[in-house]
């Protein structure tokens, strides 16, 4: 019987310690539960837990356990004094501070007496001489603490008593027990061992009052801890109960007194450890614990804030190492129901749905198509979130047999189908695998999955739109290349057509034949250049940049139009620029052709060149109809916007892009009824060479510094 009684007392101490730790963790996870008193509450609870565990292990007579009693006294006194600060009575009731200081002094003496017993034990073998003094000091502390508790509650305002009622009750329960204990000890001249062992009951009562008051103040008696705290606290409680049961059974086996007691203890510890190692990693066990806690402690199944944060984190994950969006969409839905795998089905152009992505489900065989048109039509019209177990067993009415294909019915791992709708249009279906702890889907699951499904559908629809836009841009780039080619071919065809008409009249003239051969050679070169440029449209650059003599280039362009229209090149000094000669000639051809088309038949087109600082400026001037500012701003440099009948509207646009590719700039000045001036600004060749030489010298100077006094050649 004595052994069983000791086991019960040890279990009681362990229970009090676990309760104090759980309450301390709760206060740590709820910063507003105790306000500025949170450190004091946590310190008192942690020290009380340490005292309870130490008493269970080494007994109440151990020096360490007695020192821990003093530590808990001081911690609870610190909390008690902090309660006076709630309505600032610690400033108005000045006698409080001397009482607190006196109690601290008394407990310091108590610690000194306790530690002195170590030396007396070594010298006399007993500490009986110090026990009456220790009892008297404990009695004095309990009386002083109770006086403070009485002043705390009785002297508080009526509005403050509601908040102080339960903390004051907890402190009163704690020290009332000690007052009775040490009063009996003082009168009997001995510590009653049973009452000392039952001090953990007073601690449990104080924890109950303190916890109840905190919960009442926070949530009107509704227990609403966070899910993470509840799960961890419950796990900690399970571990504590497991350890306590192990200790109790091991102690019972030892007290049995059998010859095999030691062997039974070792065997029990090994078996219990093996069971723990088998169960703790179990995902099914963790799922069961989580579901049990949610069902019994919380009003709602889901912590919607955490679910939404996890969803956005999964979908927003980017980078080279991240899974594609379709796989992340499946994972985002599966995380909600704790499913370990899933599939995403998306519509096909031919009708029905096909597999678009799979997440952690490589073993399932999905045919093509995965769903036929009848099943897709059912989900579009009903917008059902389908529990496949209900459908297999016929518990849900109104579901046609075609809605669930044979490959899903035959696979028991398939658990639920979640449709994804975007503006009432079905953009996909997520098939979820069975979670470790299967359950029936309820209204909370349906609501949350429906909201998540619509959000996912918007992401998938946006990606589909981006893919379609990218494909359209590629087709647009291809069409633009063809348009440029047709524009250039049109110019060449106009020159050859003009040549053919003139050949009928002047074919006998030697000068015309020589000019015709030159024009045909130039046209052939242009066609060859056109083929070379065809693959460069839309690329980052064009031909290689090199010095280009403007006088020769402008004369060559003017000769092309000698028999079509008068094009004059003004005499200027020779100027050389940096650019792509072929591209610059093509840009000038576009501008000159536009100037000819806008000019009267006998009005010449002028081409001029000049130097402006570090740049050369080429001007193409006509006296034609001119352009309005609105036309220049909104239509001139936009492709496929032409004012000419049958025109492509890309001449000016292509000229600007060619000039820009050479690092230049194309400007325009125009006035309706007067004419137009196009200005091409390009860097001078000598300027570019000077800058290149300076950059080369700077680079050489940094990489290989020249020694003082050394000639440049040596460097």
Automatic annotation (TrEMBL):
Main enzyme class: transferase
Gene3D superfamilies tied to this protein: 3.30.450.40, Histidine kinase-like ATPase, C-terminal domain (3.30.565.10)
Name of one Pfam family that matches: GAF
EC number: 2.7.13.3
This protein's name: histidine kinase
Key words, A-Z: Kinase, Membrane, Transferase, Transmembrane, Transmembrane helix
Transmembrane regions listed in the UniProt entry: 12-29, 41-59, 65-86, 98-121, 133-154, 166-188, 194-213, 234-257, 263-280
InterPro entries per the UniProt record, alphabetical: GAF, GAF-like_dom_sf, HATPase_C_sf, HATPase_dom, His_kinase_dom, Sig_transdc_His_kin-like_C, XrtA/PrsK
Taxonomy, superkingdom: Bacteria
Catalysed reaction equations from the record: ATP + protein L-histidine = ADP + protein N-phospho-L-histidine
A Gene Ontology molecular function term of the record: protein histidine kinase activity
Organism name: Alteraurantiacibacter lauratis
Keyword Transmembrane: yes
UniProt feature coiled coil, ranges: none
Domain named Histidine kinase: residues: 484-686
């Amino acid at each position: 019987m004595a052994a069983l009684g000791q086991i019960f007392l040890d279990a009681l101490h362990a229970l009090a310690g676990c309760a104090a730790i759980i309450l301390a963790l709760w206060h740590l996870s709820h910063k507003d539960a105790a306000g500025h008193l949170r450190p004091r509450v946590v310190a008192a609870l942690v020290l009380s837990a340490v005292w309870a565990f130490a008493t269970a292990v080494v007994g109440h007579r151990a020096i360490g356990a007695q020192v821990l009693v003093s530590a808990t006294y001081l911690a609870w006194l610190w909390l008690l004094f902090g309660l006076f600060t709630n309505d600032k009575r610690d400033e108005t009731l000045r006698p409080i501070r001397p009482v607190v200081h006196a109690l601290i002094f008394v407990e310091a003496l108590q610690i000194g007496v306790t530690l002195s017993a170590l030396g007396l034990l070594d010298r006399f073998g007993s500490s009986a001489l110090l026990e009456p003094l220790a009892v008297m000091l404990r009695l004095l502390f309990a009386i002083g603490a109770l006086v403070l508790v009485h002043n705390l509650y009785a002297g508080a305002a009526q509005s403050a008593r509601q908040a102080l009622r339960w903390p004051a009750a907890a402190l009163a329960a704690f020290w009332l027990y000690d007052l009775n204990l040490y009063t009996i000890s003082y009168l009997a001249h001995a510590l009653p061992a049973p009452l000392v062992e039952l001090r953990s009951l007073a601690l449990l009562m104080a924890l109950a009052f303190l916890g109840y008051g905190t919960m009442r103040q926070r949530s009107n008696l509704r227990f609403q801890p966070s899910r993470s705290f509840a799960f961890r606290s419950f796990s900690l409680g399970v571990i504590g109960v497991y350890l306590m049961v192990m200790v109790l059974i091991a102690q019972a086996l030892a007290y049995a007194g059998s010859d095999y007691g030691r062997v039974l203890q070792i065997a029990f510890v090994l078996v219990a450890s093996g069971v723990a190692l088998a169960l703790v990693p179990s995902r099914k066990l963790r799922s069961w614990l989580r579901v049990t806690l949610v069902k019994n402690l919380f009003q709602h199944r889901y912590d919607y804030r955490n679910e939404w944060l996890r969803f956005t984190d999964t979908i927003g994950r980017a980078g080279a190492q991240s899974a594609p969006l379709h796989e992340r969409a499946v994972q985002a839905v599966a995380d909600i129901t704790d499913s370990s795998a899933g599939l995403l089905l998306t519509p096909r152009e031919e009708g029905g749905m096909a597999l678009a992505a799979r997440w952690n489900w490589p073993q399932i065989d999905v045919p093509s198509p995965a769903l036929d048109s009848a099943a897709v039509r059912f989900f579009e019209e009903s917008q059902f979130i389908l529990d496949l177990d209900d459908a297999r067993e016929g518990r849900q009415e109104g579901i046609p047999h075609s809605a669930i294909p044979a490959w899903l019915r035959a696979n028991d791992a398939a658990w639920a189908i979640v449709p994804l709708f975007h503006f009432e249009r079905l953009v996909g279906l997520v098939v979820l695998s069975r979670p470790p702890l299967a359950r029936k889907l309820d209204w909370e699951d349906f609501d949350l999955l429906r909201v998540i499904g619509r959000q996912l559908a918007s992401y998938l629809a946006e990606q589909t739109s981006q893919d379609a836009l990218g494909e359209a841009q590629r087709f647009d780039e291809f069409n633009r290349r063809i348009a440029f080619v047709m524009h250039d071919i049109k110019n060449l065809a106009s020159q050859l057509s003009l040549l053919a008409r003139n050949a009928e009249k002047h074919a006998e003239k030697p000068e015309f034949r020589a000019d015709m051969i030159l024009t045909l050679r130039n046209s052939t070169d242009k066609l060859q250049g056109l083929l070379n440029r065809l693959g460069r449209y839309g690329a980052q650059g064009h031909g290689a940049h090199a010095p280009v003599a403007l006088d020769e280039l402008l004369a060559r362009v003017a000769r092309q139009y000698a028999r079509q229209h008068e094009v004059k090149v003004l005499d200027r000094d020779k100027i050389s620029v940096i650019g792509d000669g072929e591209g610059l000639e093509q840009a000038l051809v576009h501008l000159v052709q536009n100037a000819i088309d806008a000019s009267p038949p006998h009005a010449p087109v002028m081409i001029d060149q000049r130097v402006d600082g570090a740049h050369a400026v080429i001007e193409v001037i006509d006296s034609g109809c001119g352009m309005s500012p609105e036309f220049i701003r909104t239509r001139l440099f936009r492709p496929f916007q032409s004012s000419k009948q049958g025109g492509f509207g890309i001449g000016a646009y292509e000229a600007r892009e060619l000039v820009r590719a050479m690092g230049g700039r194309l400007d325009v000045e125009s006035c309706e009824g007067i004419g137009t001036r196009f200005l091409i600004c390009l860097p001078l060749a000598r300027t570019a060479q000077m800058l290149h030489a300076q950059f080369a010298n700077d680079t050489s100077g940094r990489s290989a510094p020249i020694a003082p006094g050394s000639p440049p050649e040596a460097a």
